[in-house]
Every structure is written in C-alpha cells, then in structure tokens.
Design a protein that fits this description.
The protein has 274 residues and is an alpha/beta fold. It has helices spanning 4-9, 32-49, 75-89, 100-107, 123-131, 150-158, 184-189, 220-229, 259-273; strands at 21-25, 53-56, 93-96, 112-115, 135-139, 164-168, 171-172, 178-179, 195-198, 204-205, 214-215, 234-240, 254-255. Strand 7 (171-172) and strand 8 (178-179) form a beta hairpin.
Length: 274
C-alpha cells in the first residue's frame, strides 16, 4: 500500500500505482542546461512508461575524496536551479543535506531531504531534517545492516515526522568495493517505510589512489533488476549525457541515452513479479 505522503508527492503525475517510483538525475548541479535537459528527457520517458518520478541533483557535494574535486556552483545557485526544474516540469525534487543548519534552508527549495549514507547516524542531522516536516530519505550506511536502520527511523519519528524512506546503497567489502545484500530490502520494509535501491552508488569502487572514486556502470541493469525482483519500492539512478565528462561520480553513472531501454525492461519485470 502506497503511503499517503508518496501519493501526495506524485499527485501532479499520471502514473501506474503498481509501478516502482524513480529518483533520477545528475550527481550534482553542473549548470542550468544540464539539469533542465536531464529533467526534460527523464520526465518524458517516465510519463510514457507511467513511472512516478522525482528529480535529484546535489546542490553541494560535501563528501569528496580529494580537495581538488568539484563541490558545486554555490548553494544558492544549486538550490535555485533544482527548484526551477521542479517548477518547470511540475516534478518533486530531492537533494542531500550534510549538516543540521542546512535542513531548514534546503527545505524551502526541495520536497525530499536526503541524508547521506555516511551521516545516517547523526542524530542532530536526522532531527533537523525531521523538523522541516518534509519527506526524509535516509541512505543506509555502508557499514550498517538493514535492521540497524530502525534507530534512524526511531529518531525521525520521535522528532515528530512519519514521512520516512530508506535507501539501500551497498555494503563495504574490503577497502575498495561494495556488495549488495538484497535481504536489506525486506528488512528495512519491515520498519514500515518505502525502500529504494540506489543502483549507481552501489556500484562505486571507493578509496582509489587516484583520489577519484571508480565504479562498475556496466552492472547497473543487473543491480536494478535484482532490486525490482526483491521488491524494492523505488530506484535511485544517477544519469548524465556523457558520464566521462561529468564533474562528479562519472565512473558509476548511467549514460542518459541508455535509461529508456533499462526502464522499459524494469517495468516489464515489475509486472511479472507483482
């Protein structure tokens, strides 16, 4: 059963309620043309396939491997461009927040506050996000089990917010790899929240000596199909017209012109397993 807050989130979209929902966009706001172009393309695909869609982009990347990595155009510019996407295409939007004092500011521009995996245990951040009364999507830490996310859920609920989603994004395997334990999907759903599979970040290869995170984008379809088969409520996919030129996380993003075919396959799979 779809939670009321999700039905409200997608009230301006015509979609098949039996479909998964999609959170997709570039890793970070690089420029206006990029975010508007991706939102236009993805929203058109989702309308045709009747998939409810949330546009995502980070207005700032606070967690970068190297001091030389791109972190954003500036908070005001990034947030305003995300809001412009939402207004132009009538889409709900999301971005990540990194500190308690960012939450109220970001909430004026976006519909879902995303808590990064590395910060999912930060009580002050969870409480501040909850206080905005926006939907809070918490990514499971790479170092945590699905069951242990109950404590993040409890913190948000105790702060007075029941609009919670959880995201699986892989588990640390050694120093430079991640693996996906699909048991985490039903384990986190048992806490009464929709569960999203972060397909692209689950394929990261962190801690590279180059200072740039690697990835295995050729496995995006594999991870996404397995997540749908395991019963995920939504998918999170970062996409870019030219990942090799992306300013952040290019190594694990899906090339934009490959998204439509993948979503077509996933819709068929969803129908088969429903």
């Amino acid at each position: 059963m779809t939670p009321t807050f999700l039905a409200d989130l997608f009230k301006n979209q015509n979609y098949n309620p039996d479909n998964f929902f999609l959170i997709a966009g570039p890793c970070i706001v690089e420029n206006e043309d990029l975010v508007m172009g991706i939102a236009d393309k993805v929203s058109g695909i989702c309308k045709r396939l009747e998939i409810p869609y949330v546009f995502k982009a980070s207005y700032r990347k606070a967690n970068r491997t190297s001091a030389n990595s791109f972190t954003g155009l500036g908070d005001d510019i990034g947030l305003n461009l995300i809001k412009k996407v939402g207004t132009t295409f009538q889409l709900p939007t999301t971005s990540d927040v990194h500190a308690a004092d960012e939450c109220a500011i970001a909430a004026d521009y976006i519909d879902i506050l995303q808590i990064p995996a590395f910060l999912c245990r930060q009580t002050d951040l969870l409480v501040a996000a909850a206080a905005t009364n926006k939907i809070v999507n918490v990514k499971k830490g790479q170092f945590l089990s699905g069951q242990s996310m109950q404590f993040a859920v409890e913190k948000i609920k105790k702060a007075g917010n029941e609009k919670i989603m959880l995201t699986e994004r892989g588990t640390t395997f050694g120093y430079q790899d991640l693996v996906v334990d699909y048991r985490n999907i039903p384990w986190m759903q048992a806490q009464g929240t929709p569960v999203i599979m972060d397909v692209t970040h689950s394929l990261q290869q962190p801690n590279q000596t180059s200072g740039v995170t690697g990835g295995n984008p050729q496995l995006i379809g594999t991870i996404a199909k397995a997540a749908i088969a395991a019963g995920a409520d939504g998918l999170f996919i970062e996409t870019h017209p030219n990942p090799s030129k992306a300013l952040s996380d290019g190594a694990n993003m899906l090339q934009l012109d490959l998204l439509e075919n993948l979503l077509e396959q996933l819709v068929r799979l969803r129908k088969a397993v429903m």
